[in-house]
Amino acid sequence: MTSTADLPHLTPNQINALVVLMVEARELTNNELKELAGFSLTGADNAKLVKLGLVETDRSHRPFSHELTDEGWRVMRQLHAGALPARSGSATRSLFTLLANLHRSLSRLGLSHADFFTQPSATSGPAAGLTPPGAAPAATEPDAAEALIRAAYHELAREPGAWVGLADLRERLGRQDRATVDATLRAMVHRDGVRIIPVANTKSLTARDRAAAVRIGDEENHTLAIGSA
Prior knowledge:
The chain is of the alpha+beta class and 229 residues long. The protein is built from 10 helices and 8 strands. It has helices at residues 12-24, 30-37, 43-51, 70-78, 90-109, 113-117, 142-156, 166-173, 178-188, 207-212, and strands at residues 28-29, 55-58, 65-68, 164-165, 194-197, 214-216, 219-221, 223-226. The strands form 3 sheets. A 3-stranded antiparallel β-sheet has the order 1-3-2. Strands 4-8-5 form a 3-stranded antiparallel β-sheet. The chain has a two-stranded antiparallel sheet with strand order 6-7. The chain is elongated, with a radius of gyration of 19 Å.
């Protein structure tokens, strides 16, 4: 768990940029940031967030685009516990109050910030609301959700017990409710033959992998294996 001593000293503008990147849970261009938050992430603010490892900036095209790193997500989970920036106005104080209450609520629900803010997969496809070819139809009951997860796993796995990325699993599940899938995965980890673990080399994770992770305890987990019970 992050301690307050681990939290960086940030300006209100840097905090605002991190909050917008968190709630959108995706890569944002400076144009999108301008539209959503009224400012672009440039200059000293951008340089500091990149230097701290909180934001990854793609400068290979214009407008530049930005995305939270794993470290950025980690800091955002605990930012409310740190000291307010010097000369914080009412907006920043209100934002810290909101972040504190968000953290408390998500902890009670057993959800990570990424779980909560990541957009449903159905809205990211070419035809939002339609089930992708080969994807499972929506299920609401936990038993039905587990059956669909197991069926999707066995379609993806080369053999029983092979590791399958949760990003691929979620794509195969299609329109399944995110909260139901996550709750089912957390329950399944206690079943014989089921393992859900993080990827050790976090640098190898893509934004898609991070968005698909399920938080179990204090860890973001990215891969699933189901062997014989």
